[in-house]
């Protein structure tokens, strides 16, 4: 804690964030945040990134945390602005991403007049936040800001929402507070390690189900050694926060999205040892299909919960099983399938990705139905990270690309986008251009919410009529992705064949800034 003279509350908060190693702010400010904007301008050290929609703000903060393990701050305008960002805060919460939201409010004395933008900000924030506080005075904002950072940095990452009334921002303040360092991640007990090792030695059909921080290259290698030693299976959820994969890394099977397929996989998997994962459930409820996907004769055994030190837990389990010297199982071999020809198809796009994903790339997957088999086909591609939508609320991909690219400026980011999903946060193209971020975007243009056509059948609707089909289509008029992208400063082209896609993808990967390819499928 340090004392400074001639500060206002907003300045003390910015100084506190910087002292606490929060040095990026994704912003979409309004009138009530002008003193905070002035403080960001006055005080050096904070990178400020303007997003044209609040869902872009919160999604970018999610992507930044996933790649750094370090929270960013956001700046949002009152309850409506926060409300616009809630969908991607939901996704971030499911991904266990730490974020410090700064939400402006009316001056405290102005609230009683119920001006048009007055609303219950704490009530709006609550469902998507782990911690919410309205800072009552300019003298308390620094301590509250430090507490927000401490909350966001807890393991697993948390969403902290700090509400900053305008008079709290412009009033006098005299201190800067540094957030306490985060505590060490919890360790799995020796008793749990011995018990789990016993289960894996029991001869019963067993599998590891990994999630969260257990999907790093190091953790997967330890899991692969355990597989070699015990003969157990190894699985991950369909959607994952960040998976390190590719040639030379341990390959894991995803539990399928489709319920019937998931049931078959889990029937063969036997009992599950949960390592940063939860018991598998269906994404939605369907008539006459189960919500809980585990077979009646199988059990789930808790080993390490989200937030635990996964590498230490797997290291201890491997040691208990005398598996540390065992070669890891399921290591993916390099594989580049032949480049396809002809009109673009799901299988052909997957083959092109398998050939052309550059080493150390960050792949953000919101390809929905077009990309269902992308991960299987790219298992032998050059080593890379793969990020999924943990929360399922669409429109996360382009904002996540903003945050991931800012977090990793030396790595190529590839965003795989369904056209319907991309339209939710299309404004992020402008931010990608303004910040000149090294992101190549593939938009799969099929003119429909194709996943929902399948879901009509899954929930038992037969022979849908033209009004139902019309509600699931995004044509009439057709979207022109090249015009939309170039209109926001992003170079773009449209392709209809595999040959053209391979050429365009090569050009996009060589391009130092954002580049969009509309892929007609």
TrEMBL record:
<dbReference type="InterPro" id="IPR012001">
    <property type="entry name" value="Thiamin_PyroP_enz_TPP-bd_dom"/>
</dbReference>
<comment type="similarity">
    <text>Belongs to the TPP enzyme family.</text>
</comment>
<dbReference type="InterPro" id="IPR045229">
    <property type="entry name" value="TPP_enz"/>
</dbReference>
<protein>
    <submittedName>
        <fullName>Acetolactate synthase large subunit</fullName>
    </submittedName>
</protein>
<dbReference type="Pfam" id="PF02775">
    <property type="entry name" value="TPP_enzyme_C"/>
</dbReference>
<dbReference type="InterPro" id="IPR029061">
    <property type="entry name" value="THDP-binding"/>
</dbReference>
<keyword id="KW-0786">Thiamine pyrophosphate</keyword>
<feature type="domain" description="Thiamine pyrophosphate enzyme TPP-binding">
    <location>
        <begin position="380"/>
        <end position="519"/>
    </location>
</feature>
<dbReference type="InterPro" id="IPR011766">
    <property type="entry name" value="TPP_enzyme_TPP-bd"/>
</dbReference>
<dbReference type="InterPro" id="IPR000399">
    <property type="entry name" value="TPP-bd_CS"/>
</dbReference>
<feature type="domain" description="Thiamine pyrophosphate enzyme N-terminal TPP-binding">
    <location>
        <begin position="7"/>
        <end position="112"/>
    </location>
</feature>
<dbReference type="Pfam" id="PF02776">
    <property type="entry name" value="TPP_enzyme_N"/>
</dbReference>
